[in-house]
Write a structure and sequence with these properties.
Elements: H1 4-17, H2 26-34, H3 38-43, H4 49-83, H5 88-107, H6 131-143, H7 147-161, H8 166-189, H9 191-201, H10 205-225, H11 228-238
Length: 245
């Protein structure tokens, strides 16, 4: 049976990957993972097996670094929510307000300067790339997440904090991390086709940003009205084949 919350977390991770905050910087990370300059990658129609293998292994390590941070954030959120269980409604309203503000920002209704920043990290000489270095970059990437990650991540963390067990909360953040990082690994294997795809997809980044804003506002509404479980039950009843019921 496919869990509605897990499905939502996975889709949220995918949407974040294709957002304007993340997708444009992916080629530079791929260059780092491959240990080759971006110009050299674009100039070649096919990559050598060694460069491709190095890129995939490093991207997996990079992804593990990101997922580790997300899972730790999920554990912390669940622990805090359990400690202040009697204030869960207030906790939910604050989270809804934050998510709503981010949603309005992505729609262009509000413009908040610090939310327009983009995460950057000095990854240095690509020739010195290694698996451990990729993991550390992944940790740094997750710790300095961009607003595009932050809005959806806040929503997922809030959902995780309301789960009945710590295991469920951690699993939710793990699935979100997989949704976000899986495209990194796929892109590392298909570097040249991905770069060609990205060149065409750039024209749609603004639409992805608007979609993200709408999704965040919708989720904020679910939090305010405490309707998350109701929506999940409705989806299970209305689409039993989709969720394996």
């Amino acid at each position: 049976m496919l869990d509605v919350s897990l499905w939502g977390a996975f889709i949220g991770g995918l949407v974040v990957f294709f957002s304007p905050c993340i997708l444009p910087i992916v080629p530079f990370y791929l260059s780092y993972m491959a240990g080759s300059g971006l110009a050299a990658i674009k100039a070649s129609d096919t990559m050598s097996h060694e460069i491709r293998r190095r890129a995939v292994i490093s991207s997996i390590s990079f992804s593990l670094g990101i997922i580790c941070v997300f899972v730790l954030l999920g554990a912390a959120a669940f622990s805090i929510s359990q400690t202040f269980r009697s204030y869960q409604d207030e906790f939910r309203w604050v989270a809804a307000a934050i998510i709503l503000i981010m949603g309005l920002h992505f729609l262009g209704v509000l413009k908040i300067a610090f939310l327009d920043r983009q995460f950057q990290i000095q990854i240095g000489d690509t020739g010195k790339m290694n698996v451990l270095g990729s993991f550390v970059v992944g940790v740094a990437f997750a710790a300095g997440w961009t607003p595009c990650v932050g809005g959806v991540l806040t929503a997922v963390i809030m959902t995780a904090s309301l789960e009945t067990t710590a295991y469920r909360g951690l699993l939710l953040l793990f699935v979100f991390g997989v949704g976000l990082t899986m495209p990194f690994i796929i892109a590392a294997w298909f570097i040249n086709p991905f770069l060609r795809f990205m060149a065409k997809f750039r024209a749609y980044l603004n639409y992805v940003e608007k979609l993200m804003g709408l999704l965040l506002i919708f989720f904020a509404g679910l939090l305010i009205t405490d309707s998350i479980n109701g929506l999940a039950n409705w989806m299970l009843v209305s689409f039993p084949n989709l969720f394996g019921v």
